[in-house]
Amino acid sequence: MDHVSTFFKSLWKTVETKHEEGLYNTICLAVLLVLPTVILILALIICCHCCCCRQKTGSANIQSEKKKKKKNAEEDLWISANPKTMMLEKMPSLSA
């Protein structure tokens, strides 16, 4: 416990010293101290977002599969008598 309080006292002493040296040092010190906190918060937000989206897309995939099955069952599939001739009609001729 004594080591922890010594660490924070020395940290506070460094902050006070840099603040007395000038505004630029104070701003740099504030950025350096806040940056790990911002990174931690962003990591938590990203993790929570990924977890929430995975659950929603998982249920959405199940619903879309059910819709596809219903749609495929209801569709009238029409196959032409000569599918190859229709394909050839659509292709440009290379002999020209």
Briefly, what is this?
With 96 residues, this protein is mainly α.
Average pLDDT figure: 76
The multimeric state of the shown protein is single chain
Binned, the helix content reads over 70%
Low-confidence stretches: none
The biggest beta sheet is recorded as: none
- Described by the principal axes of the CA atoms, the overall outline is elongated
Counting DSSP H or I runs of 4 or more residues, the number of helices is 3
The portion of residues forming beta strands comes to under 5%
Give the helices and strands as they follow along the chain: HHH
- Give me the secondary-structure category: mainly alpha
How many DSSP E strands?
Answer: 0
Report Rg.
Answer: 33 Å
**Alpha carbon gap, first and last residue:** 90 Å
Keywords: Membrane, Transmembrane, Transmembrane helix
Transmembrane segments: 23-46
Question: In words, what does this structure look like?
Answer:
- Keywords: Membrane, Transmembrane, Transmembrane helix.
- The chain crosses the membrane at residues 23-46.
- The longest helix has 52 residues, at 23-74.
- The chain is mainly alpha-helical and 96 residues long.
- Helix 1 (2-21) crosses helix 2.
- It has helices spanning 2-21, 23-74, 83-90.
- It has a domain at 2-67.
- It starts with a helix and ends in a 6-residue tail after the last helix.
Q: Could you name the key traits of this structure?
A:
single chain, 96 residues, mainly alpha, 3 helices, 83% helix, transmembrane, transmembrane helix, KIAA0040-like, membrane
